[in-house]
Amino acid sequence: MRRTTGRNFLFVPGPTNIPDRVQRAMLVAMEDHRSSKFPDLSTSVLSDLKRVFKTNAGEVFIFPSSGTGAWEAALTNTLSPGDKILASRFGQFSHLWINMAQRLDFDVQVLDVEWGEGVPLEQVEEILRADKKYQIRGILACHNETATGVTSDIGGLRKAMDAASHPALLLVDAVSSLASIDFRMEEWRVDLAVSGSQKGLMLPAGLGILAVSPKALEAMQSATSRRCYFDLADMISANQMGYFPYTPSLPMLYGLREALDIIFEEGLDDIFSRHHYFAEGVRAAVTEGWGLKLCAKAPKWYSDTVSAIMVPEGINGAHVIDVAFRRYNLALGAGLSKVAGKLFRIGHLGDLNELMLMGAIAGAEMAMLDIGMDIVPGSGVAAASNYWRSNDPIPKRKVSKEEQFYEAHSTGSVQ
Question: Looking at the DSSP assignment, which residues form a beta bridge with residue 308?
Fold first, then answer.
């Protein structure tokens, strides 16, 4: 029987823990979403989401859906049936986006990559160079593949596209990276960036979020894919006045407003540093403490939002997850598809601190011992502790002489 006392330790890579401030912000009375007051809320969240995506020229749209809905919106609003798409498949979520594109009648050229690696930049560039007639209209890339704990180099992908002088649209899944791992829509010239509410934005599932570049908005004019609920033209028309073409989720929008306030109070750069710091502690627990391997094949692929931990031959990763949940009230991520039973996942993104994450490491460690895995009790906890105690979550920056002078005078330390 599963223990129900105390808090459930939620350490799947989404949905993530919701800050108390956000939960309180969502406890609102229903109101008229056509009132003259409503645009104050809607325009503020749409504008501030652009800051999170790091775009000035792009537009952001919010759908009452999951990230999967935003996947569909990205494809159908900018491409036509039969259009050729180039996509790398290296995990369950990159696979699902490819599957959707195929079911929507796009011609998908799939680059199958070993699970544990990311977008193969050199191979992409080679294919694009050979596409002299520019038949490839879109490139799909998963920034952070949650199933395997792999982060791809989207800036490098843009460089590969530029080296081939190829005009294809760049469509990126940023569902488990946005507001957790550095994402630079404008700098990397990402045309469509997909995300959702339940990961780095620290909300329940229910909002599909899509950022769209001017180039992608222009591509809408010639796209002939059928669309209705996800038609950006309807969104654009309503959003211009601060409204939505259908009833939005008011509690979610109020929660999003509070979540964005929290994000900007901490600062995006500090959030990215904190996530890297947490991830390094988990990786220390896995490799130095437990002597296990990550699914990610090399450090350049390591994700700062989720670690996929390989279990030894003869061990079923699902047993670790089951024991952790039933005995210790700890939720860990399962291995999916090709890696089912071969690993378990610890999500380390969103609203968390060292002690919360230490609970996940300790619970996973106890569950592994319970099913007979040969690890030293306390080894993962010790390795993570040693890393976090020896490092700062926010790298120290050099303070200029001008800043030193201002600080000294403002605090009255100079007579």
Answer: 345
Q: Domain 20-264: give its CATH code.
A: 3.40.640.10
CB atoms within 10 A of CB 14: 22
Q: Are strands 144-145 and 84-89 parallel, antiparallel or unpaired?
A: unpaired
Beta-carbon neighbour count of residue 408 at 10 Å? 11
Could you tell me the pTM of the whole model? 0.94
Residues 342, 343, 346, CA angle at the centre, nearest 5°? 170
What CATH number belongs to 9-15+267-390? 3.90.1150.10
Q: Report the chain's terminal Cα–Cα distance, integer Å.
A: 68
**Residues whose CB is less than 8 angstroms from the CB of residue 29 and which lie 6 or more positions away in sequence, other chains included:** none
The one-character DSSP state at 207 is E
Amino acid in the structure at residue 42: S
Domain locations in the chain as residue ranges:
9-15+267-390, 20-264
What's the pLDDT tens digit per position in 262-299?
999 999 999 999 999 999 999 999 999 999 999 999 99
